[in-house]
């Protein structure tokens, strides 16, 4: 079967995190399972077990391989030895890096880096302000210029890697940062003509109409844009006379604009365009209909300049509206952190995903109500099934609500634990966890002993007492057994023994 699937990954000589020394991480068992859904490896572990670091290392390893293959860059971000085995379509690739030599095999035959197949996309997603993923410089209205005169880039700016987090290249983070990045990604998808059919499905799955309204409002210095004397000379003079203490964070962006004559020229032309509009009123509103892509034409033509004005603190986002099928609407900027998380993470992922991709998601449950946590994997399955069955999701989580929604034919559950000496212990759950109760997940997967609710405990204790005292109250015993029969239990649940003993007591005393 054709698919992309990491099989195993082993690390050694990694001084920054010795806990991983010679540990083999298995990401899947059956590499040829036939399913209509993407494969999900769910990694569960307490804090300080290295879940997030493992995802970061995977990003570095694949990005290093990409740069070596496509840019002949032999500088590796990951300073350690490793062996990674994965499947791409029908071939098994094995890469071993011993620091001094990179050894690559394809189906047990040694090959060069030029023959290596890498995932179509390497996507890293997180809603944490402290995520460990490397981030990129925004290419859409980049003000920073390298010594060669070209837009400044990081080593992670390439066609394979996509960072879908809330941190910027300046290492700043906010919930609205996720909204801004999502709009950036939407613009890039539509301007490049790479419109993913999964985008309207995200709206449908969230019971939303596939329409997004984006509003821009003028802020400080708005009179500057409307000034009839506005020219490149005027703009340079304006920037030279700015007071850094009054302007704040946008001061550096203004100064960097002086080093980019092309952007200066484009900004002057756009200001003239705004003045020439017949309806010279603001805010500017774009109504984007994801079922009629021609509604994006004006947005695409103006987005770069509006985003530049936003970075200069001349323009800000106003309302960003989504519309529910029941007729109500809400502003994403004013939504709960959970609503923002679900909407922006799924939309941005739908914009960039391709089949045969590796998608790394760190703690998707952040800011999500338990109801959303229970729905999360079902949303992923609903949106990305069929079209992306050859994609591998690796998700790290603390949430037991995600475990019970894993599909048995397209998932693998790996747990990480620290022993008393802080050594890393790996364990797999070799059976399906689909439909497990929260109590069973907590006990079996997380090693958390939890009591069931007090009413259940009362019935359980009463049943045991009635049997042990050879009671004649068979009706009460039957009542409790009938109630217990409605509970979904695994074969290993010890409650099965008590139920079996109760049924046997009824048969013997009926």
UniProtKB/TrEMBL annotation:
One Pfam match: AAA_15
Signal peptide feature range: none
Domain (Endonuclease GajA/Old nuclease/RecF-like AAA): residue spans on this chain: 8-403
Name this protein carries in UniProt: AAA family ATPase
């Amino acid at each position: 079967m054709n698919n992309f699937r990491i099989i195993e990954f082993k690390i050694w000589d990694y001084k920054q995190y010795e806990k991983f020394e010679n540990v083999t991480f298995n990401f899947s068992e059956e590499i040829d399972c036939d399913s209509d859904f993407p494969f999900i490896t769910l990694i569960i572990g307490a804090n300080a077990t290295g879940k997030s670091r493992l995802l970061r290392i995977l990003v570095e390893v694949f990005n290093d391989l990409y740069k070596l293959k496509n840019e002949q860059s032999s500088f590796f971000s990951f300073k350690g030895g490793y062996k990674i085995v994965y499947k791409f379509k029908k071939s098994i690739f094995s890469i071993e890096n011993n620091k001094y030599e990179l050894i690559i095999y394809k189906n047990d035959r040694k090959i060069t880096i030029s023959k290596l197949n890498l995932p179509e996309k390497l996507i890293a997603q997180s809603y944490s302000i402290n995520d460990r993923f490397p981030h990129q410089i925004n290419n859409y209205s980049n003000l920073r210029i390298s010594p060669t005169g070209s837009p400044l880039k990081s080593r992670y700016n390439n066609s394979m890697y996509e960072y879908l987090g809330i941190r910027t290249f300046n290492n700043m983070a906010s919930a609205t940062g996720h909204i801004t990045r999502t709009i950036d990604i939407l613009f890039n998808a539509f301007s490049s003509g790479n419109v993913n059919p999964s985008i309207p499905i995200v709206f449908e799955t969230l019971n939303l109409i596939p329409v997004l309204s984006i509003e821009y409002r003028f802020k400080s210095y708005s009179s500057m844009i409307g000034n009839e004397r506005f020219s490149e000379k005027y703009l340079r003079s304006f920037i030279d006379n700015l007071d850094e203490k009054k302007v704040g964070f946008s001061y550096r962006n203004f100064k960097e604009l002086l080093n980019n004559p092309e952007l200066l020229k484009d900004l002057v032309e756009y200001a003239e365009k705004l003045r020439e509009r017949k309806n010279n009123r603001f805010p500017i509103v774009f109504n984007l209909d994801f079922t009629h892509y021609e509604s994006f034409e004006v947005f695409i033509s103006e987005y770069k300049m509006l985003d530049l004005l936003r970075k200069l603190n001349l323009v800000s986002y106003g309302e960003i509206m989504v519309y529910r099928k029941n007729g109500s609407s809400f502003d994403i900027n004013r939504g709960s952190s959970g609503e923002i998380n679900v909407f922006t993470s799924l939309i941005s992922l739908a914009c960039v995903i391709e089949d045969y991709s590796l998608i790394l998601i760190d703690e998707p449950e952040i800011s999500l109500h338990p109801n959303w946590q229970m729905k999360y994997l079902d949303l992923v399955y609903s949106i990305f099934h069929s079209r992306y069955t050859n994609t591998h999701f690796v998700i790290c989580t603390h949430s037991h609500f995600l475990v019970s929604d894993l599909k048995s034919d397209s998932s693998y559950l790996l747990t990480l634990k620290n022993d008393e000496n802080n050594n890393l212990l790996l364990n797999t759950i070799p059976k399906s966890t689909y439909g497990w109760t929260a109590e069973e997940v907590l006990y079996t997967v997380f090693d958390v002993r939890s009591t069931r609710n007090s009413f259940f405990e009362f019935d359980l204790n009463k049943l045991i007492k009635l049997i042990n005292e050879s009671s004649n109250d068979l009706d009460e015993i039957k009542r409790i057994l009938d109630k217990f029969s409605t509970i979904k239990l695994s074969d290993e649940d010890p409650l099965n023994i008590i139920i079996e003993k109760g049924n046997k007591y009824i048969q013997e005393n009926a």
